[in-house]
Write a structure and sequence with these properties.
It contains 39 helices and four strands. It is mainly alpha-helical. The chain folds into three domains: 178 residues, no CATH class; 242 residues, no CATH class; 202 residues, no CATH class. It has a two-stranded parallel ribbon with strand order 1-3. A two-stranded antiparallel ribbon has the order 2-4.
Length: 798
């Protein structure tokens, strides 16, 4: 059958399913349907969203038969993986990939349709299980027919749904996916036992280096011994797709990291992603990371090949090098890029549900790494999160970090004309994955800061933030970059590492400067404030907190960064900002803390900042001497008699994302929530407000600095009759000692990221939003019924 003829035949079959009832006994129709060669593109084209919903709503029995037979055939191919049936199995995979999201629209996280519930999770006890036709295929109603009367399609299904083992179709399709991802000659190589050692050990985790022990001790991890447990070693290691974490190239043996199965892996991974999409149909305010039964099946301790799948996905992602292939690549390379991108999405989804894993190593009496049985049997246990948290060897942590840095550097290397590098589009998913490692593996952050060059991650993050600052569609990207910087800025090692000289030339209009990576960070964040989208307003306190966290360790500030910092002070002390809300002055408190940290702890080497403060002395003086009368007059001059909605627009914007600002010790959450309370009530400076402002702003160090240095600088200028080289002033400022003139140095305050349910929900919504948008060439999901986030549908969409 030619390609056009097969496409036409498949289209006719789809129309028949939509328009008339097709008996489950009609073996000719069903057998022919599965044998029609159809590409994924053809399946998606011939089953548009309207047709899928019409099939679900008007011909549910047809859909149930279609779904059940497809699942049964996947179970059959897992049991008897003969290559002559692979094409037919792929047809089933493609059809299931297309229809499953529309079933899940009516799943228990969506509209909770009883028929969908019984089809996916029933075992024949009620509902459709008692239907004479469909019940045969899901294990129920068999008593209504003699054995000789059971149709062929039902026999196929019942062979895989034995009455003694009646498992839900949802579980069967998820397990079939996880089996098919390691099916011999379909998605992995198969070796006879005689060609491999009888017992191929996984990576020997009993070999621990001195550095590994020191790192574990620093984090406070102590090994626990149990008699028995659920093993965490990948078995067999030879089926893992690529070397890296959990398995070395030597252990993989033959043709390690082969790409010849990429096409089939992509097809099955796409189906697994479709099986996992029910969070899309849960309203954000009702979302529960433990609620998805589909994901619960995929991440359970007994999920087939789960350990091998975790290492396969992770190693496939982190082994990829965009620089290894030129921009103009062949078909096979394109398939591998698809595999890398889809692997990133699937791994993010599998790591986003259930409960966090515990990083504490647990081993059995044989020294093998395990999970305790009582832990593995708890509701919400996630084998993937446990595996991620348990990665603890220096070799593997370095491999992970190097993979992330190589892939994230691609965001600017691909735009550099002197580097031939294929552009990787899944950088947002990579950032989500990087975040999850940073959140749940305590050794990863420490290792990245102490054993690796963290600036290799900082530079692409700053580049992405700088480039995306004015694009409304990239606000989420700026958010996740901000959260990563906020988390890392809470570590002293991060601030120290940023003193390394910045020498790269990024393909953007970044101001030229000679300085360190802290300069790059501050210049980037300054640009986001003064030239960013208005929706970034809720992140201003995060930006300033990041700068405040790293400021005590900033050894030498560039002229450009010094000017930018003082410009920020002038901006936030201007009447427009200062009187925009009752708590707007807290931005100034953070900036003054930055100045105090540098003046008190890094005075020598930061003459540029000191001179910039001296030159803008009026801005500091006006704030220090602010009176109620001046404040009220300035507020009235800027805002007049405007309505509260106009005056408190900043506060309203802050309240939008308040709960997603994950900071401790800096009152960011309080700022936003209190601002949201005043919407509807005009803000007007009061004596109480002024007293609170003055109590909150640490002006003493800057005031004393100005009292001592302003006369010195004025004297130099007067002696030169107003014509003076700035370098001469900088030299004088460097030589002056402020010992005994400044207040007693304050304690360094570091504000650490604090996880909460709102940031977790934000990451889930962001991740699924990215996945939704990145799967539009083959539209895996339809936006009409998505509840987790808002989808703006074009008028031309169906």
């Amino acid at each position: 059958m030619g390609q056009s003829a097969s496409k036409e035949k498949f289209g006719e079959s789809v129309q028949a399913l939509i328009k008339v009832d097709i008996s489950a006994d009609d073996a000719d129709f069903w057998d022919e349907l599965w044998k029609i060669p159809s590409s994924a593109e053809e399946v998606f084209e011939l089953i548009p969203p309207s047709a899928a919903r019409k099939l679900r709503d008007d011909r549910f029995e047809n859909l149930a038969t279609l779904f059940t037979q497809a699942v049964a055939q996947l179970c059959q191919i897992v049991e008897t993986p003969y290559s002559i049936y692979f094409d037919q199995a792929l047809n089933c995979v493609r059809v299931l990939t297309r229809v499953l999201p529309f079933l899940l629209e009516k799943g228990d996280l969506g509209d909770a349709d009883e028929n969908v519930e019984q089809l996916c999770w029933g075992t024949g006890s009620a509902g459709l299980g008692n239907d004479e036709k469909i019940g045969l295929m899901i294990g129920g109603g068999a008593e209504k027919k003699e054995e000789g009367e059971v149709p062929m399609s039902a026999k196929i299904a019942n062979k895989n749904l034995d009455e003694d083992q009646q498992e839900p179709l949802a579980l069967l399709v998820v397990h079939a996916c996880m089996h098919m991802l390691f099916l011999p000659q379909f998605t992995c190589d198969f070796y006879e036992d005689s060609t491999l050692p009888k017992h191929r050990p996984a990576v020997d985790k009993t070999i621990v280096t001195k550095e590994d022990k020191e790192l574990r001790a620093e984090v406070g991890l102590r090994e626990k011994k149990v008699e028995w447990g659920v093993p965490l070693d990948p078995t067999p290691t030879s089926i893992i797709w690529a070397p890296g974490v959990g398995v070395t190239a030597t252990e993989l043996g033959f043709d390690a990291g082969t790409r010849k199965y990429d096409v089939n892996r992509v097809e099955v991974l796409r189906l697994l992603l479709a099986c996992s999409c029910d969070p899309l149909y849960s309203p954000a305010d009702e979302y529960n990371p433990l609620a998805s039964r589909w994901l619960g099946v995929a991440t359970a301790a007994d999920a087939p090949n789960a350990i091998c799948l975790f290492y396969s996905l992770l190693n496939t992602i982190l082994n990829y090098d965009p620089r290894a292939m030129p921009v103009t690549t062949g078909f096979s390379e394109g398939n591998h890029v698809k595999l890398v991108e889809l692997s990133t999405q699937v791994l993010c989804v599998l790591l986003d549900c259930g409960l966090p894993g515990t990083a504490e190593p647990v081993s059995d009496q044989n020294g093998k790494e395990v999970v305790e049985f009582d832990v593995a049997s708890k509701g919400g246990f996630n084998i993937f999160r446990t595996l991620m948290a348990r990665i603890d060897t220096g070799r593997e942590l370095t491999f992970i970090y190097n993979g992330f840095s190589r892939l994230l550097r691609n965001v600017y290397e691909a735009e550099a004309t002197y580097i031939s590098s294929r552009r990787l589009e899944c950088f947002q998913e990579l950032l989500v994955l990087f975040w999850k490692f940073s959140e749940e593996n305590p050794l990863f952050v420490k290792h990245a800061l102490l054993r690796c060059n963290i600036n290799e991650i900082l530079v692409p993050i700053c580049f992405l933030m700088y480039r995306s600052r004015r694009d409304p569609s990239q606000i989420g990207l700026v958010h996740i970059c901000t959260f990563i910087l906020l988390k890392f800025s809470g570590e002293r090692s991060f601030g120290v590492a940023l003193n390394k000289q910045f020498t790269k030339k990024l393909p953007t209009d970044l101001p030229l400067f000679r300085g360190c990576h802290t300069d790059l960070l501050v210049i980037t964040l300054h640009k986001l404030v003064v030239n960013g989208a208005y929706k970034l307003v809720p992140l201003y306190s995060c930006f300033l907190t990041i700068i405040a966290n790293v400021s005590p360790y900033w050894k030498s500030m560039s002229l450009v960064a010094a000017v930018k910092l003082v410009n920020l002070f002038e901006l936030f002390s201007s009447p427009k900002f200062l009187y925009s809300g009752e708590f707007a002055y807290r931005h100034l408190a953070l900036l003054l803390e930055v100045f105090n940290n540098i003046i008190q702890y890094q005075y020598h080497g930061n003459a540029h900042l000191v001179y910039a403060i001296v030159r803008r002395k009026d801005a500091f003086g006006q704030l220090a001497s602010l009176t109620l009368e001046r404040a009220q007059a300035a507020c009235h001059k800027v805002y007049g008699e405007q309505t509260s909605q106009q005056k408190n627009v900043d506060a309203a914007m802050k309240s939008m994302d308040a709960k997603a600002i994950p900071m401790s010790n800096n009152n960011a959450h309080d700022d936003a929530s209190q601002n949201s309370e005043v919407v509807g009530t005009p803000f007007y400076p009061t004596q109480e407000w002024l007293e609170e402002l003055k109590d909150s702003l640490p002006m003493e160090a800057v005031t004393r600095l100005l009292q001592h240095l302003v006369p010195v600088v004025d004297d130099i200028v007067n002696k030169k009759s107003g014509v003076v080289d700035e370098q001469e002033i900088l030299d004088v400022l460097n030589e002056i000692t402020m010992v005994g003139l400044l207040p007693v140095p304050h304690s360094i305050v570091i504000r650490k990221y604090q996880p909460n349910q709102y940031t977790a929900l934000w990451f889930t919504a962001f991740m699924w939003g990215v996945i939704f948008l990145r799967n539009q060439s083959l539209p895996l999901f339809d936006g009409e019924c998505i509840e987790l986030f808002q989808v703006s549908l074009d008028d031309h969409d169906e």
